[in-house]
Every structure is written in C-alpha cells, then in structure tokens.
Amino acid sequence: MDLELEDVPGVGEKTAAALRELDDPEAALERGDVAAVAAAPGVSEGRAARIVQGVVRQRHDDPGGFLATDRAAELYDRALSLVTEFAVTDYAAKRLRTFYPSGVASRVDEAQELAERAIEKGVDEAAREHLADVEALSRPSDVRVRDRCLATTDAETYSAARDAFPELSVEVVEDARDLSELARGYSTVVALDEEFAGVAVEGDVQVEPKALEKPAEIVPERVLSFFAANRDSLAAATRVHRAAGMDPPLDLDTLEDALARLEGDGSVAGDEELDRLANAADDLDAVASQAEDVANDRLREALAEKDVTIEGSDLLSLVERGAGVDSLLSRELGDEYAEAVAAAREHVVSELDLREGEADRARRAFPDEPTYPVERDPEVVTRLREELQAERDRRAAKRKRELAADLADLRPAAADLVHAALERDVEYAIARFADEYDCTLPTREGTGFDIEAGRSPLLDVPFDEVDPVDYGVDGVALLSGVNSGGKTSTLDLVAVVTVLAHMGMPVPAESARVPAVEELHYYAKTQGTLDAGAFESTLRDFRDLTAGADRKLVLVDELESITEPGASAKIIAGILESLHESGASAVFVSHLAGEIRENCGFDVTVDGIRALGLEDGELVVERSPVKDHLARSTPELIVEKLAEGEDGAAGERAFYDRLLEKF
Ligand SMILES: Nc1ncnc2c1ncn2[C@@H]1O[C@H](COP(=O)(O)OP(=O)(O)OP(=O)(O)O)[C@@H](O)[C@H]1O
After folding, report:
1. CA-456 nearest atom, ligand 1
2. Contact present, 399 and 267 (Cβ < 8 Å)
3. CA distance 363 to 366
4. What is the Å distance from ligand 1's center to 241 Cα?
5. Could you report the per-residue pLDDT of 418-467, keeping only the tens digit for each?
6. Is the distance from CB of 256 to CB of 238 less than 8 angstroms?
7. Is 662 annotated as a binding residue?
8. Cα atoms in the 13 Å half-sphere on the side-chain side of 260
9. Does 313 have pLDDT greater than 90?
10. How far is CA 318 from each of CA 321, 328, 333, 337, 629, rounded to the nearest angstrom?
C-alpha cells in the first residue's frame, strides 16, 4: 500500500518531515513499529503510538472516538497497563499501546486474531527471559572513518558521494598529482573517476568508479558498526528464536559465527594472525629492549668467569688511542659475544612470534660487530615496526571487508529476526495477561451483554480474592443494591470487558458477550448536587447520547445527585425511555431504582445486588446481581437486624417493626 505520510491522521508537515529522517518511515508505520517511529526527531513515544494508531484507523476507515467519556478513557488506560505490565521489552510495551478500542469490526477482528494466536502459542519462559536482552535495533551514532577518503574531479559525483558516504571525506581533485598529494594524508584514497584507471600514482590509490554501489566494500565500518552496536540484541534474538522454536528468517548458526568474528568496537575478532601482527607491532620496542638485557647479562656472566690476559703492547696501544676495546672484545670474547647476540635475536623472534621475513629483519637489529653494551639498531627496529603495522592494517582491512560482505547480506534478515523476537514479546504479554486474569476471548453481537464469572481486575482487593460476577442485560436496565455491595465494581467490570473486547483482547471472565458498539459512554458517580449550569449541560449530554444510541453502550453510576431526589427519578426515567426507544444498551446504577421504575413509561428491568444479611455488623453480599430484583437497602437491613435482636421488651420491638413496615 502506498502510504502518504501527510495523509495519516495527526501527521502534519513538520511531523512528516521528522518521520522522513527515518530509514523507511512507511514500513515502520505499516508494521506498527512504535519504537522505530519514536526514533524520529522530536516524536515522543506517546505521539508515536498515536501516529501508528492513526495508520491503523486509516486502514480500517475508523472514525475513532470509542472512548466517549473521561471515565471510559480512564478505564482504557488501566486496562492497557494491565497488559503492558507483562511486556518484557520496551518495544512491546509501546507496541501494545497501538491496541485501542475500535467500533470497526475489521480492526477488532484483526487484533483479536493476533490475541488468539498469542494465547494458542502460549509462553515459553526461557524465551521470555532472553527477551530481556533484546532491544529495538539502533543505528550506530556517527561513524567517522579517517584513514580513507574519496576523490573525484566531477562536482555531481562529489555531491552524490557525500550523500552516500557520510562517514568519509570526499575531496575534489584536478589530476593525478592531486591524488598522490591526498595519498600522503590518507592510507587509502578511492578515486571515483574512470579516467584515473591505469594512471600510476604513488601511495594506496584505488580506482573504483562503481564505489557508490558497493558501500560495504568502501566503508565496511558502516555495516560492522551496525552489527557491533546491536550485537547483544541480535544474539539474544537468536536465543529467543531457538528457545521458542521460532522459524528464523536467517540461518542462526551463520549469524552467530559472524557475530563471534566481531568485536564490540566493530573490529574483527578471533583472527590469530591479526592479533599476532598487532601484538608484535605494539610490543616490539619493549621486547627489543629486553633482548638487549638478555645479551648484556650473558656477556657480563661470561666476562665474570674469564681472566683476560692483555699483552703489554696491547695495553699500551689501548692507553694511547683510548680505543680499540672492540677489537680486544672480539679477539678475546668473540664466541661469547656471538652467542649473546644470537640470544638477543632469538628472544625477539620468539617473543614476538615473528615469521620468516620479519625474523630476518629483526635479526639485523642486532649487528655482528662486537660492541658493549649490546644495543639494537633503532633504524632497523623502526622500519620493522612500520612493516608490522602496515601488514596489520592491510590484514585488518581485508578481514573487515570480508566480514562486512558476509554481514551486509545478513542485515535485512537480522532486522527481521529482532523484529520477530520483539513481536513475540507482544504476544507473550497478551498470553500472560490472559493467563494471569483467567481470560477468555469475548464475542461481540446483539444488544446488551452477558458476562459469566467475570472478575474485575481493577478492584482494591487482590485478584484471587475477587468474587466472580455473572451479569447479563438485554437493552436498558437499572441496577440497585446495598451500599458497598459492588454496583460500581460491576459497572467497571462491564466497562473493562467492553473496552478489552473492542481492543481485540481477551477479557477476565469465563465467557463474555458484549454488544458490537462504536462508543462507550461511562459516567462516573457525580459528587454532590450539581448547580443549575452543570445540570443543564448534563441534560444536553444525554440528549446527544440518544442520537444513534443503538451503536452505544451507556453505563451510568448514580446520576441521582444531578438534582433534587424527587425530580431526578423523573428525569432519569425519561432518559431511560429515550435510550430504550433508540435501542441502546445501558445500565444505570441507582439507589432510586424503585422510584425511577414507577416513573418509567416502559417496563424497565431492575436488577439488584442483594445482601444476604448482616454478619457481625458487616454486610454479606451476593456479588452477582439478581435479575428482576429490587435489592433492599442498607438502612432496611439495619432496622431488620435491630428488630430481630430485640427479644426483650415488647414495646421496643414494636418500634422497630413499625419502621420495618414502612419499607
Ligand atoms: N466482586 C467482588 N469481589 C470482591 N470484592 C468486591 C467485589 N465487588 C466489590 N467488592 C468490594 O466491595 C467494595 C465496594 O464496592 P463498590 O464500590 O463497587 O460498591 P457500591 O455498591 O458501588 O457502593 P456504593 O453504594 O457506596 O456506591 C469494593 O471496594 C471491594 O472491596
């Protein structure tokens, strides 16, 4: 599908420009990758989730607006965090935020299919543990390569090269002389123009007119740094695939082998020859100095054991010329000297593990002519070090290119690998949520709802202490009940089940049917009597509500305080009539259920949460509303308790009986 960024709901020109900074913004939006979208400059995670939601809405032609009231929106937030809590990765937590309640069947079905698959697959705990080390892939921060540059004579090629290789310097040159000038400052110069082919230039100058098509060869660092930066994630994603038995998008062994060849800093690991050259170059000076000690110690020992006889004339000539000790040394101690120097040479060769050519040069660092103390020839040592370094760099570059070539081929599949692992975390979170809250997949049809053994995950008691509630309503109903009986909790349950069902998520019940609605209107209890203005605006809200009410679920908690008691029963009765006529599904919780019913022009259902009695002053409540039952109120129960408790004076008992009769 061709996605125009500006067409996505909520994406203006500025955001579209920010999104274009991403590698492939359309693909990120298509696959709902909130983490990738949030990587665009100035786009927060919350915004990224809304943008992705916008794309989903657009695909399903969804006008949105399911959560029609603040309380409905609040319940969505709480329901969502119940699921995101089980996300191991940051990615999954963000991705789950793209699941929103929708009134469009195709969207809900799509999400529910995902949830169903997730629950079927179940959770592999070992894989889930490995997910802790998987992160959305990051782009390594600016890689700069300083030992290589590109050169061209052409202005267009110059700007194309600058775009293609932000890691390298690109220089404009006039001729071969400029090239060789550049080659002095860089260890490699890549000339981009055909015309330089065959021109002899000093230094390492390569002519590569097709360089722009071979980024991995020209800048192997790019792909290497990508893999180095994401190495832990890739390795963990590999473990996730293995543990969960997922079908990987690439050969896992191949990826693991390639990663094992890569150091954390993007250099090549596990190459013995490269390590040997690097160590030899680094240690050469120290080892050469040790070698001097070896030779000098030997000579000293040899001298200590030896009496040197000097003929008188020699002594005279020594004194006269102040020199010639060397000749004396070679004559008297020639063998010992040769042995000492040989030991020094072998020390260097063996300590640095030098190869034939290198060893020859190293040996020449210690001359045959006897001197004391024995000293290395610094020039020879310097040249040897330069040779070792050059060899090391050549080998490193070659290995980097080889490894980069292998890894470049793996890069798209590696991204898929990590993405698949992260998506698995989304599924695991849903499956864990379903398991933790004993969920089932709901159906969406008809009017009203039917919930069996539903348990609200939003209660102030631990979930395993929540009593299951059965409740079904067809059309419009009133819910009565004792104080603290669980009326509000029942509305919450219906709301959270409806919201989760329209998100495509499983719901905390043994079975659940909710109406397929486009909007949820949930009004929380109003606190205190409303002033005239607020009363008016509430009435207007309810007038608006009746339009298209057959596509709405309306849940209202204790509306009676909108105005004085006698009047509110009449007003609520009128609202119920309108909702009934327009085919809405609705539950109104009220302490005035009896009065409202009397004022209602149709036979409104009144259900009740019943108290079974008082036990030690505490209500014993049957949490599931009883159908067609106006529940007794708390004061009535208290009077009854007093009446039953008074078996003494008949006069006292008669008092409570009189009160009871009033109910
Ligand atoms: N299904 C349930 N399982 C366990 N405890 C529950 C359940 N429903 C409600 N409760 C407990 O009862 C308390 C009161 O519930 P709730 O506020 O829903 O009652 P209410 O009938 O709306 O009260 P009020 O008449 O004061 O508005 C809850 O805070 C919770 O502790």
Report:
1. 1
2. no
3. 6
4. 45
5. 999 999 999 999 999 999 999 999 999 998 999 999 999 999 999 999 99
6. yes
7. no
8. 9
9. no
10. 5, 9, 17, 20, 131
Question: How much of the chain exceeds pLDDT 90, in percent?
Answer: 60
pLDDT in tens, 540-580: 999 999 988 899 999 999 998 888 878 999 999 999 999 99
Q: Is 357 annotated as a binding residue?
A: no
Q: Whose CA is nearest to atom 29 of ligand 1?
A: 460
Amino acid letter for position 554: V
Asked if the model's pLDDT at residue 327 lies above 70, the reply is no
Nearest to 556 by CA among 465, 638, 490, 622: 490
Both tokens of residue 437?
């809250």
* pLDDT tens per residue, range 158-211: 999 999 999 999 999 998 888 888 888 888 899 999 988 887 877 788 899 999
Query: Is 645 known to sit in a ligand binding site?
Result: no
Look at ligand 1, atom 4, and give the residue with the nearest C-alpha.
466
Angstrom distance (rounded) from CA 163 to CA 211: 13
For residue 39, what pLDDT is reported?
Answer: 85
599 annotated ligand-binding residue = no
Residue 467's pLDDT is 95
> What atom in ligand 1 is closest to the CA of residue 485?
21
Which atom of ligand 1 is nearest to 492's Cα? Answer: 18
* CA end-to-end distance (rounded Å), the chain: 67
How far is the CA of 651 from the CAs of 639, 643, 657, 659, in angstroms?
A: 15, 11, 10, 13
Q: Which runs of consecutive H residues, i.e. helices, occur in 133-230?
A: 155-164, 176-185, 215-218, 220-229
Q: Is 330 annotated as a binding residue?
A: no
Distance CA 168, CA 145 (A): 6
CA of 96 to the centre of ligand 1 (A): 30
- Kindly give the distance from the C-alpha atom of residue 414 to the centroid of ligand 1, in angstroms, as a whole number: 51
Residue of minimum CA distance from atom 14 in ligand 1: 484
User: 374 — alpha (psi -120 to 50), left (phi > 0) or beta?
Assistant: beta
Average pLDDT, the chain: 90
The rounded Å distance from CA 489 to ligand 1 centre is 5
Would the ipTM clear 0.90, i.e. be above it?
Answer: yes
pLDDT tens, residue by residue, 55-79 = 999 999 999 999 999 999 999 999 9
* Higher pLDDT pick, 237 / 654: 237
In the CATH scheme, what is the code of domain 443-661? 3.40.50.300
Ligand 1, closest atom to CA 591? Answer: 25
Length of the chain in residues, anyone? 663
Q: Which residue, 637, 503, 377, 549, is CA-closest to 53?
A: 503
Which runs of consecutive H residues, i.e. helices, occur in 165-271? 176-185, 215-218, 220-229, 231-244, 252-260
Asked whether residue 482 is marked as a ligand-binding residue, the answer is yes
Both structure tokens of 85: 């809590």
Specify the pTM. 0.82
pLDDT, mean of residues 281-289: 95
| Residue recorded with tokens 């909108």 | 562
Q: With 60 as the cut, is the pLDDT of residue 648 above it? A: no
The per-residue pLDDT for 68 is 95
CATH 3.40.50.300 maps onto the chain at 443-661
Tell the residue number behind the tokens 């302490």, with chain if given: 591
Residue in 452, 480, 488 to alter for ligand 1 test, most ligand atoms within 8 A of Cβ: 488
Ligand 1 pocket, Cβ-based, cut-off 6 angstroms: 459-461, 466-467, 469, 481, 483-489, 623
Give the pLDDT score at 133.
Answer: 96
Cα angle for residues 609, 615, 617 (degrees, 5° grid): 95
